[in-house]
Design brief:
- The chain is an all-beta fold.
- Strand 1 and strand 2 form a beta hairpin.
Length: about 170
């Protein structure tokens, strides 16, 4: 009959009847195989790799035109980005909204993460470049913004909010 004896790095011996051994730690494993009155010994060095961690962080919301860099960390690994961008670099700079996923492989271990990136459109505000009014009177400046109906808030240079402002003195209004 055949008997297989494994000795783990802690010196614990397991007698099994199959060729498979579940390994849960690194180190040198000694193998002794008995067949009738004969035996053969050998050893194997198992290196446990640290857990591979990829963390792109939480979902990101930016304004159109802002820049963002996603970094999968783990220098020396191989990278496979998918989503709106396909790339094989450690870092990417998304320019459009979407779900960005990266799969990282290092020393035979693989990990992945994904992040949703949303680029909100910048508001469009149209103002006449100049306004004239008579001294002692006031003029109402109206901002034409199609996003006002969708909940956008306009804040004027005096701190007031709304789609219009009443002005009774000369100067620059923002």
């Amino acid at each position: 009959y055949t008997l297989i004896e494994w000795e783990n790095p802690n010196g614990v011996v397991s007698l099994i009847t199959t060729n498979d051994l579940m390994i849960d730690q690194g180190g040198t494993y000694n193998l002794k195989v008995y067949n009738n009155n004969c035996f053969k010994t050998t050893s194997v060095l198992v290196t446990a790799q640290p857990e591979l961690v990829v963390n792109l962080g939480g979902d990101k919301t930016l304004c159109e035109g802002e820049s963002l860099e996603l970094d999968a960390s783990n220098p020396g690994a191989s990278f496979n980005w998918s989503g709106p961008i396909s790339a094989t670099s450690q870092k990417i700079q998304p320019a459009i909204s979407g779900n960005y996923k990266v799969e990282v492989t290092l020393n035979g271990c693989t990990a992945s993460d994904s992040v949703e990136v949303l680029f909100n459109p910048n508001p469009i505000v149209a103002l006449e470049p100049t306004y004239a009014f008579c001294e002692g009177a006031a003029v109402t400046i109206q901002a034409d913004n199609p996003l006002i109906s969708s909940g956008a808030i306009l804040t004027w240079s005096d701190g007031s909010t709304g789609n219009s402002i009443s002005v009774n003195s000369a100067g620059q209004i923002k």
